[in-house]
Structures are given as C-alpha cells and as structure tokens.
C-alpha cells in the first residue's frame, strides 16, 4: 500500500512539472488518502501484535 502512495506521488510530481495541475492535485489527494490508510493499518497491526505476545 505504501508503494501505491509513492507511485501516485511521483505521478503528481511529473504531472505538475508538465503543467497538468488538475491531474497533479488529484494524484496528491489519492496518495495522501492511501498513505493515511497505510498508517492506520500499520498502527493497528502493531497494537494487535503487542497484545498477542
């Protein structure tokens, strides 16, 4: 999931470089959303692993 957020971030940078501001903005929003989901799932998995031991 982190890989996808990095891919969308790179797409946004390339789109912004070529002047496609709308596409860059959408790609940044998608990348942020996926990154936040990754962080939430990571924290949940850490908490679950701590309570299992």
From TrEMBL:
It holds the Pfam family DUF1328. The chain crosses the membrane at residues 7-27, 33-51. InterPro entries: DUF1328. One of its GO terms (cellular component) is plasma membrane. Keywords: Cell membrane, Membrane, Transmembrane, Transmembrane helix. NCBIfam families: PRK13682.1-1, PRK13682.1-4. HAMAP family: UPF0391. This is DUF1328 domain-containing protein. It comes from Bacillus mesophilus. The lineage of its organism: Bacteria, Bacillati, Bacillota, Bacilli, Bacillales.
